[in-house]
Amino acid sequence: MAGGERLICAADALAEGGRGVRFEVERHGKPQPAFVVRHEGQPRAFLNQCGHVPVELDWNEGEFFDASRLYLICATHGALYHPASGACVGGRCAGRGLIPIPVVERDGLVYLVETQ
Description:
This protein is an all-beta fold. It has one domain: Rieske Iron-sulfur Protein, CATH 2.102.10.10. The chain has strands at residues 5-10, 21-27, 30-39, 42-47, 72-73, 80-81, 88-90, 100-101, 103-106, 109-113. The protein has a 4-stranded antiparallel β-sheet, with no helix packed on it. Strands 1-10-9 form a 3-stranded antiparallel β-sheet, with no helix packed on it. A 3-stranded antiparallel β-sheet has the order 5-6-7, with no helix packed on it. A hairpin with a 6-residue loop joins strand 5 (72-73) and strand 6. It is globular.
């Protein structure tokens, strides 16, 4: 769907600093894993791919935050990412951050904003 929106989840499925919801996006003609979490009251979504090596971040399905619940963490390398921007803040990410995915929350639901 060009320029449309696709439902990801109910807004109440995302607790501040809690479990995320996994979903897929199409990128370069191929499906790729992505996730959405809640940070500072807003849904934040990214490709589920470490900036260091293209492996998925979650250490258990939907678990993306570190023990402090302040940063997103790669379970494989320990790289830390800021949940507002996806910027690398430490660990083995070589300064490469996460790739953001546009989402919007409206009427109690979270939607993927499809741009292609």
